[in-house]
Write a structure and sequence with these properties.
Helix content is 76%, strand content 0%. By secondary structure, the chain is mainly alpha-helical. Helix 3 packs parallel to helix 6.
Length: 200
């Protein structure tokens, strides 16, 4: 199964950069891609940045393709469903933004251990503890979010394989509804496990 953003050990500049610097760079890159009006320059620049990061991180085009495969069902969902209500250029621009942002976020997690990301987030939020912010709880929420992405990707892969075994072809309707149900069931199981350990 192709896993989105699972850490890959390499000796590269991106791997040696502090997690905080990479997260700040990710936020800046996301703003540059998401805020301006859609244009070929914005999306072309974003695509060049994504490819450059995968080479600088010594991951290569093969790893980039693995990440694209990992988000292919997300791409299908954000393209097919909005086409019912929105014009094609708007859907394409939205999909391009989401793909670039997800691939840049994957670069961060591919080159940074999860514990380093959580430590960086908790360190940044520590001064806000006096205002009622709980860095530990936010770190836990972030860890659960990071963990949930590959879980949902795994559920999507299992549904896809089951559809092919039963029908030999893919059906969007028969794919999206079970995926939502299983994702919500996973969220309920996680919430029950946290409640059993005294986490509110």
């Amino acid at each position: 199964m192709t896993m989105l953003g699972q850490y890959r050990a390499r000796d590269s500049i991106l791997h040696r950069l502090p997690a905080g610097a990479k997260l700040i760079g990710l936020v800046v890159a996301v703003l540059v891609v998401a805020v301006p009006a859609p244009s070929a320059w914005t999306f072309g620049g974003g695509a060049v940045l994504v490819v450059a990061c995968y080479f600088v991180g010594r991951l290569g085009l093969r790893e980039l393709w693995r990440q694209v495969l990992a988000i292919r069902w997300i791409i299908m969902f954000i393209v097919v469903v909005p086409l019912i209500f929105l014009p094609i250029p708007t859907v394409v621009a939205t999909a391009a933004r989401v793909v670039i942002v997800l691939l840049l976020a994957a670069i961060v997690s591919l080159t940074t251990r999860t514990t380093e990301i959580l430590d960086a987030v908790e360190h940044v939020l520590h001064p806000f503890r006096r205002y009622g912010v709980n860095p530990d709880r936010i770190g836990l929420m972030l860890a659960l979010t990071i963990r949930t992405v590959p879980v949902v990707a795994g559920l999507a892969g299992e549904l896809r394989d089951a559809q092919r075994a039963r029908m030999g072809r893919l059906s969007v309707k028969a794919f999206v509804v079970p995926l939502l149900v299983q994702s919500l069931r996973h969220a309920d199981d996680t919430a029950d496990a946290l409640a059993a350990r005294g986490v509110e």
